[in-house]
Amino acid sequence: MASLTAPPLRVSQAGRALHDLGMAGLLGGNLFGRHALHPSVTEISDPAERGKLVNAAWRRYGAINSLSLTAVLAGHFTGRLNETSGRRLSRPERRLMRAKDVLVGAVAVAGLATAAEGVRFSRMEPGGAVRLRDGSHADAGASPSEGRAKRRLDRLGAVSLGAEVGLVAVNAALTQRNFRRPAARRLVMLRD
Questions:
Q1: DSSP-assigned beta bridge partners for residue 138
Q2: Where residue 12 falls among pLDDT bands split at 50, 70, 90?
Q3: Which H or E element spans position 35?
Q4: pLDDT, tens digit, for every residue of 15-66?
C-alpha cells in the first residue's frame, strides 16, 4: 500500500481507539443478541410479538453496527497507509497483519450480508412480526420461506461472530508482539 506521512500521535491514538471501539461494538452486539436477547424473548408468549421485538432491537442496533464497522474499516485502512505498512513490520507482524487484512474483509462482507438479510427478513411480515420460537429460530407457524430466511440469517450471524472473534484475537496478538519488540527498535520505529 502507499505510504503517507504519519499523522500526529494524538490523531493516531484517536483512530486506534475508534478502531477498537468498533470491534467492541460489533462483537459485543453479536454476543448480546445471540446469548441474551434471542433466548430471552421466549418470555413473550406470542410468536409474532417475539419477531416484532427481535427485529425492532436489531433494527435499532443497526446504527451502532454501521458506525462500528465504519470505525473498524477506517482505522484499519488508514493505519495500513503508514503505521502498519509492511515496511514498518517484522516478518511475524507482516503475517499477522495479512491475517488481519483478511479478517477485516471477512467482518465487512459477513456484516453487510447479515445486515441485508436481516432487513429482508424483518420485511417478510408487517412490523417485523415474523413468528419466532426464540430469537434464533422461526416458529412452526412461520412460512417455509421465513424459516429458510431465519436459518440463513442465523448462519450469517455465526460467520460474523467467528470473523469478529478472529479479528479481536489477531489484533491482540499484533499488539502483544509490538510490546515484545526490543526497546531500541520500538524507539526507532515510534519516533515522531
A1: 132
A2: confident
A3: none
A4: 888 999 999 999 999 999 999 999 999 999 999 999 999 999 999 999 999 9
The CA distance from 102 to 52, in Å, is 35
Q: Which residue has the cell 493505519?
A: 79
What pTM value is reported for the model?
A: 0.86
Residue with cell 415474523: 130
> SS3 breakdown of the chain: % helix, strand, coil, rounded to 5?
80, 5, 20
Task: Give the HSE-up count for residue 124: Cα atoms under 13 Å, Cβ half-sphere.
Answer: 23
Cα–Cα distance, 117 to 111 (Å, whole number) = 10
Q: Of 125, 168, 127, 170, nearest to 150 (Cα)?
A: 125
Grid cell at residue 82:
503508514
- Classify residue 171 by burial, with Cβ atoms within 10 Å: 0-12, 13-18, 19+: buried
CB 19 within 8 A of CB 75: yes
